Amino acid sequence: MSTSILSTFPLGFPWQTQDPFLFCVYHLDHYPKGNGEMGPDASLEGRNLGNDFLIKDGWRMYHGQTIPGFPSHPHRGFETITIVNKGFCDHSDSLGAAGRFGEGDVQWMTAGRGVQHSEMFPLLRTDSENTLELFQIWLNLPQNNKLVAPHFKMLWHEDIPVVKEDSAAIKIIAGTYKTRNAPDPAPDSWAAHGDNEVAIWNILVDANGSVVLPKASNEALRTLYFYEGDTLGIADQEIVVNFGAQVDASKELTISAGNKTAHLLVLQGKPVNEPVAQYGPFVMNTQAEIQQAMQEYQLTQFGGWPWPHADNVHPRDKGRFAKYPDGKLVEK
Question: Where is the composition biased (Basic and acidic residues) (predicted)?
Fold first, then answer.
């Protein structure tokens, strides 16, 4: 095995991660045309509605009963970073914030001391398929930020830099790539401090092309996820699609695509290096803190749910937008 590659692994559901990342999942659903009510214009027979995670006919309903997605659910103690490359996501939360984002947009949400939100995937097109391609990444918060105030931020695709090289394009969602910086993350994030070397890059390498990833420090952990293409050369080793690799971040790394365009996600950062206690959507440092989180959620519902439905979606003809907790509205 190459000295640059520390290990390789198949991409499951979810994907394997390293500290400071807790979770990473890739959703690719070839939804049919919509039925006018933003659900699929197709039979739902044979699906385990409310828990539909098996790919049937190329798509899943997840926890949705009529519209695919994830109705209201709580989080505490970490951040979610949701990258929607194709299709759209409708966000609603207990802060009163809302949004519709997609086609390359990114939502960064700090759960902090507690928030409820829903993430639904409205099928807006009624005359053609509604493909969804989405990553959701969970980034840990250190103990001193576990209970910060929740925060909601949009990174619109128009504002996310893409570095074009001879045979590659690197979208910088977090951190720095060579001399280019991503938009600022949420203010209490582990990624808000450059010394933590957090980076999230979505990279496209042309068929038979290559790209050289810059080196980071000895402390940074870097993972590559090869999710579309045929083969990928990493230094002097080849991996096939739907595999990942933990690599030595302290070395420059040459990546070469095979006969098809290669798509990969890169996650990097210095570890938080703290104990992790997790129960479903709560991530704290101790089991006692998990118990406290569960009790507080039962008592307060983290502010309640100000929306008419647990699977709230926005009007079908609504464009991309974000409504922030302070009432500020941004429309794209």
Answer: 311-332
